[in-house]
Amino acid sequence: MDTSSYSTQYLVLDFIGEGCFGKVAKCLNLKTDKTTAIKIFKDIKEHKEEVKMLEQLRALDPEKNNLLEYIDSFIIQDVPYVTFEMLDTSLWDFVLQRRAPLTPKEIRPIARQLLVAFEALKSIGLIHTDLKPDNVMFVNHKDEPFKVKLIDFGLAMPASEVKTGMIMQPCGYRAPEVNLGLPICEAIDMWGLGCTLAFLFFGQGIFSGKSTYNSVKTLCCLMGQPEDHILNEWCFDTVGTLEEAVKEDTMAFSNLLKWFLSLKERVSDLLVQTNLHNICIYLFFSWHSPGAPVSSHNPEMSASLKYKT
């Protein structure tokens, strides 16, 4: 690779992020005069793993599927880089700066776009495994309000390579089947999505990010302790009273969260249904309808969401 061309291609304008992987810089592409984001890695192995996942994402349209656009990767003087499109701000930073949670009306388009993104990932057999408010970003909130994209595929994995007992996902967004050592599938991303939507609605995470014990304890308080025979079947029902935490006019949103934060329906729906987006379309319509009660389900859709043994 001729690295000399890369050494003059980008002008670093600012450093906009930092994590255990390295740093993210806001840069100007001197050839195209466009602003881009460049991820600077500390570890070349992590760079190779992420690029491997990003190359698989090239099979998907980043605009139609609300995914971060991957541009290029290169290595200069043994330092690995990846370039992406420049986005706006993360959901986490947005809520902190706003100092107020989002309304169901504001959350709805975000949820819909993320469902499209995860359906696309499922179509190519990938699990994101790292969904949290930091990893969803607005594209340009001023010009395109509430248009978002899913980012950070450094921990993404092919579903075929996931094994029972693997520890993945941030603690506060970790699905119970991961904590309990139960079989894992794409459904864990739906749990992460439910936790992320709850963060937007309440303005804080509903599960502790400090320890697995605290997360499981909160789960049992919110949704009821799983019965032994259900755990033996590696699934459990939502039996809690999450709707008590929200006002009467947002009961439908509570119902949506309960679906995301259940293990039984969430896992079985993904295993049985061929189109997750169609499953959720009704949920969003009922959520969007003013005053729609939690129990107002389409009979055909309700039947399709029942657990299949």
Automatic annotation (TrEMBL):
Keyword tags: ATP-binding, Kinase, Nucleotide-binding, Serine/threonine-protein kinase, Transferase
Pfam families in UniProt: Pkinase
A GO biological process held by the record: smoothened signaling pathway
Limits of the Protein kinase domain: 10-263
GO molecular function: ATP binding; protein serine/threonine kinase activity; protein tyrosine kinase activity; SMAD binding; transcription coactivator activity; transcription corepressor activity
Residues the entry annotates as binding ATP: K39
CC annotations in GO: cytoplasm; PML body
Family: Belongs to the protein kinase superfamily.
Protein name as it appears in the record: Protein kinase domain-containing protein
